[in-house]
Amino acid sequence: MKTFRRYFKFADDKLDNSLSVIIHTLGYHIHPANTPYPDANHPESHYFSWEKGRRLKEYQILYICKGEGAFEATGMPPQTIEAGTVILLYPGTWHRYKPLLSSGWEEYWVGFSGSFAKHLLEQECFNPQNPIIKVGFNTEFLATFEKLLDVVEIREESYQKLASFLLIQLLGILYSSVLLSNQKFSRKEKIVGEIKKAITDNWQQAIDFEKLANTHGVSYAWLRKTFKEITGTSLNQYHLSIKLRKAEQLIYETDSTLSEIAYACGFESVHYFSRMYKSKMHTTPSELRKIN
User: Where are the transmembrane segments (predicted)?
Assistant: First the structure.
């Protein structure tokens, strides 16, 4: 397999902040089998190690069109990534990914921010806890990505506006894929989806899962088994992951002390909060506060 890469980074460009979506980074890379990942020639802005993972400051679409690999992120079990998969990465969420050594993979990515992007990706059909979207070998999606790469590479007058339009097209294709996928949900998936929403809506409270099961017309035993089957995690761990993400948001966005954040997020002590955060987020709240 031939190695090929195109990288564009716009962090130092003068960005047009009037746009509803703003592209920060864009690229395409064929990563050969039996070679370390990420490639040693990745620019510093893109490089990360599997051991440490990373957190992004912006949204990113990562599309794997060939090959297979693995993906891990805070609050979800390890995922197997197949060709035709989009990984939707959210700002501030710890994650890591890599292709199988035996297969390598072919990847497209675009990092972006903006009011429209934030509004769309906060819709109920998108979920940071389930960032894996199966779009398959979607010719429209691929053609739009290729056009976006071409527009940015040439950088003719008003290229930012055209690139913004093409990115909105990509987001629209993703949105349609997610809606179509949601329409195919089974009864099990619908009930689990309702339970997830109930947990999210009441994340600060102690949740009685037996009562929650009864209100949805199922037994507690059925709910525990089915929730784990569909989400890959338990009810308690799912609730904990939401609390930790809310705490992380408060660390980023407020000047509240770690003790105040711990109690606001329903933890019995700052020590317990720090221990849980370290075990799930791969860093401590105090370390996150230092780099914020």
Answer: none
